Amino acid sequence: EIYILSLNGVLPISSTDPPADRDGMNRRRLVRHSWSALAGTVVVLACALLARAADPSKLWEVVHGQCVPRAAQAAVPAPCAKVDLEGGYAVLKDVVGATQFLLIPTARVTGIEDPAILRNDTPNYWQDAWQARSFVERNAGHPMNRDMLSLAINSSYGRTQNQLHIHIDCVAPA
After folding, report:
1. Angle at the Cα of 131 (from 111 to 129), degrees rounded to 5?
2. Which residues pair with 89 in a beta bridge?
3. What's the chain's average pLDDT?
């Protein structure tokens, strides 16, 4: 006989016509739901792996390959909203959400763990990101109190990009 662990305890599942358990769900349904949950978990993990497999240099390519050259030619720095060549950063609208922007160094900085962050001549990207909150406010359509805004970074374990970027967005939907 085969058993499955459920919230109702250990249940045998090998019977051809199992009796209903105390919640009214028969064992076959329980097994079917268990397989569905397992399939859902596999799908979520597969999506996470695909996201991880996305081009980890995409942000760097956009900023370094498109925004910076256009800003250097005194042109509109599209697709970036802003490029500050002296300040060493670009602001790019994120593909996620209506109000989320990213502050991205124009120098190659892999992440918050990069030793370059600690050098004395490194720009204060956090200050620059805080100043860039005006882009979030513009897209939200109104000024926002400081407790309505957030700055966030991803750890080296939780990111898909190998270029430091600071997320600038509303704490809750605008």
Report:
1. 10
2. 84, 105
3. 81
- In DSSP notation, 48-106 reads HHHHHHS-TTHHHHHIIIIIHHHHHTTS--TTEEEEETTTTEEEEE-SSSSS-EEEEES
Range name among 30-39, 117-126, 160-169 with the lowest pLDDT average? 30-39
Q: Are 125 and 103 in contact (CB under 8 A)?
A: yes
Work out the percent of the chain whose per-residue pLDDT is above 70.
69
Give 98-146 as a 3 state SS string: CCCEEEEECCCCCCCCCHHHHCCCCCCHHHHHHHCHHHHHHHHCCCCCH
Chain position carrying tokens 């209506």: 98
CA dihedral 94, 119, 67, 132 (to 10 degrees): 50
Strand 3-6 to 9-12 pairing: antiparallel
For residue 13, the 8-state DSSP code is -
Task: Indicate the burial class of 67 (C-beta count within 10 angstroms; 0-12, 13-18, 19 or more).
Answer: buried
What pLDDT is attached to residue 156? 87
- pLDDT, mean of residues 34-63: 63
Split at pLDDT 50, 70, 90, the class of 5 is low
Average pLDDT of 43-69? 75
